Amino acid sequence: MGGSSPYTVAIEAAGIPFASSHDAAHVVAGELLLVDRVAATKALTSVAPDHPELVAARDHGLTPEPWQQVIADVAATLGGRLVCIAGTHGKSTASGWLVHVLVAAGLDPAAFVGALLPPDVTGGAATTARWGSGTAFVVEADEYAGNFDAYRPDVAVLLNAEWDHPDVFADEAAVLDAFEAWLRAPGAADRTLVANVGDAGVCRLLTRLSDWPGRVVHVGLTDLGRDLDAVPGACAVSGHIADTGELELEMAGIRRTIRPQLVGRHNAANAVCVAGAALELGVSLDDIAAGIEGFRGVGRRMEVKGEPGGVLVLDDYGHHPTAIAATLAAVRAAHPGRRVWAVYEPLTYHRTAAMLDAFADALATADRAVIADIWAGRDPDTTITSADALADAISARSTTPARAPGSVEQTAAYLAREVAAPDVVLVMGGGRSYVIAALLVAALAAREWPPVDC
Known about the structure:
Elements: H1 9-13, E1 28-29, E2 32-33, E3 39-40, H2 42-45, H3 52-59, E4 65-66, H4 67-78, E5 81-86, H5 91-104, E6 110-117, H6 119-122, E7 127-130, E8 136-141, E9 155-158, H7 172-183, E10 192-196, H8 200-208, E11 215-221, E12 235-241, E13 247-251, E14 254-258, H9 265-280, H10 285-294, E15 303-306, E16 312-316, H11 321-334, E17 340-345, H12 349-354, H13 356-363, E18 368-372, H14 387-395, E19 403-406, H15 408-418, E20 424-429, H16 433-446
């Protein structure tokens, strides 16, 4: 593992030992096992199963397991209703949003998600988990390599379905296979699926699930180019984005007009899904509307890091062409007339190579594009593409050449020299891209800015 990060602050503050390197001594002392369970991410075990802790565990008769199994066991031990938020995009935002709605309604949920929940949701430090005594346990359910297979949800929420993770899914059909198998797992007859029928991939999955024994609840936006009336079954929650930017929700035949703090059509779709899930969990319509409107977001999802000298710096986890395009569109809508920089640290070589043209199409919609070195993650082959190759592809689609300055540190230094007020800098990626945003804010804050004429 790496060293300290924004995700380890709460762990260290709680006094939980944290190691920044691998060592068999974390698991065994001589022939004595020191732990009862060893849990790891499949992103590690799929390409490097011989880390010291994993080898030590197996040598002493302890089988490593996915960390999701530990979370599933906690949820089962607590009882109540397991609520799983799934989909290719928006899982962390929607999970955090639902937790916020439940907290604001006084339902005290437990949760484990993939982004930092704010202190007003956790009741303490910003962290990915929340301990609650209520009946709902909300988890982010990731499809990668069957990560969500450990979960047997009472309520599953499917935001969208699209091809991603080309190292494990050959195409969209393989992605849909994974979602279908998960939903058909034992207990399906007692399961409720809140499905965003405004998404084409979700509708294709619902066709496959025509004989599914569980209960399907339809939700969706009415203005995303799909005719929801053509989908069998009425929508329990539908939404329409008004010209004013407000979101008009219709829930159980009653309309509420709200103004969410999270901008963008993709977030409006997330809000509709959150409303559908909250309705299933017994939250009142007034509490749903107030909770959706009051949510300020989770960490690294269009997160404002600062605006030193009039340069707005945003940090985002976007690492898929669809998510990048949606986030850039939301930034433009929120900040009209300002020059927008798309700064991207590609997440994995295999994804970048497989989707190079789609990445270039999305990033070329920015006024300026800057590509940091690729974060390898679980890549065994780092020769199949490069940051320069992506920058070249963007340049071929844009009137302004894209740049590839190098490391995240070099990228931040380049930006500090080039940006100027009132630019908006959107930093995206899933590796160390957050370092770019932090270093850029610090560099801009230290700059001596010329006086502004009043």
